[in-house]
Amino acid sequence: MKRKLVSIPLSVLLVSSALLAACADGGKTATPAATTSGETPKATDNKPTAITIMTPLNTPENPPDVVIKELEKLTNTKLTFQFFPADTYEEKLNTTFATGGLPQVTYLKNQATFIQMKSAIRDGQFWEIGPYLKEFPNLSKLKSTTLENTKVDGKLYTLYRGVDIARQGMIYRKDWADKLGLKPPANTEELYAMMKAFTENDPDGNGKKDTIGLTDRNDLIYGSFKTVATWLGVPNNWGVKDGKIQPEFTFPEYITAMDYYKKLRDEGIINKDFAATSKTDQQNLFKKGTAGIYIGAMTDVETLEKDLKKNVPTAVVDVHSMVAGKDGKFSSWALPGYANVIMFPKSAVKNEAELKKILAFFDKMMTPEVANTMFWGIKDVHYTVVDNKAKKKDKELVEREVKPFTDAAVGDEDTTGRYIGVSDSVPFTKAQTLKIDNLKYAVQDPAAPLESKTYLEKGVQLQELIKDATNKYIYGNIDKAGFEKAVEDWKNRGGNKIIEEYNAAKK
């Protein structure tokens, strides 16, 4: 089959042969690579099923094989996990795809990466799995609304890892706020005032001007910008204006959000090089006591608090989410119900029998026993059960040995029956409540279930144009007229067609 490439920047493809070799080998694998004869085992064969899995890594190092061995025992498999750092995962994914080297099970990083792959899905390069789910009792429990959000032309090609729909908020230094006499911000003006005070009023008391209000990274979606922009009234990717679906950056609130961030950067309240800062470095600014606020998934607080206290034992952390915009209204950016999706390339999964064996593995992953192993680790080693809830025994051990698999878990708490967590971290427990409270104010993407042929062909490149223009505006390299010119460029290169197609699909 002639391989149809997804739309990706040219720079992604211009990689060295050494990198390609590393991708083909899966980087550092957590277990020795499995080999197969190329023949599909018979249904009666009890030989372990060999499965290779490519997935993002959100920890500094690859995990040992403790969890893998337990999973293999529970599911009668021989597993090879290919972990790649999340910060550069899209590059590894696209390079491996371009060379025909995707493994049998391929995790995509997020909604944007999934959209990027839709042209390859339409080209027949991945297995359609919808017709098979009814054969697997546990996979059949996956949420229909989330599955609908991942269908392509009405067909299902993916399994998903569930995610809290409205988990966004702020994690902040409560000890700094208390020292400066500040309450949790009720609106974006008070949020600005807190960030400015954290920058200028020596909150750590060392007599030096060495703190900043907000730490951010090179991601306008999963960094802080999207969350704050939603608080300021910006729609979720697309909004309705004059009875038509329009892109978020054509709304005046988007300019307001850029002005808000430009002011933060101009005044040194945010790390000035945020557009070139990785997630790891962003979090380190908070963990080391340099930044007072981290805006993103509130459930990140457990790890951020733990690591911060290693450097600043007296630090006190809290979470907060109800930040109103200038109109006094609350809004919470909503995710589509999944963090990433799992796909099965036809180049690696050769026939229906092999696909069914892999789906059988994922069906077992959704049983409570295996789901708890993926998400919490091994009972009495990584966690204990308290009041029918899981409690981590050693957070560092869990971070090192379990978290990479937690990020690859399938389904949700309620669809798998896995334990809900309990933590000694007070702000983490509070975050669990706030993410439910946020649901009342969740702002959905009205274009999520719609299709646009032009978006699939050009959307990735066009979105890079807007991302670049947004960063340039915040950095002061272009003004409002320059940004509006970029929007017109977006429209002329295919954006108008995307708007037209989405509105036609809505009707």
TrEMBL record:
Pfam families: SBP_bac_1. CDD domains: PBP2_AlgQ_like_1. Coiled coil: none annotated. The keyword Endoplasmic reticulum does not apply. InterPro entries: Bact_solute-bd_prot1, SBP. Keywords: Cell membrane, Lipoprotein, Membrane, Palmitate, Signal. PROSITE patterns: PROKAR_LIPOPROTEIN (PS51257). The keyword Cell membrane applies. Residues 1-21 form the signal peptide. It comes from the Bacteria. This is Extracellular solute-binding protein. It comes from Paenibacillus sedimenti.
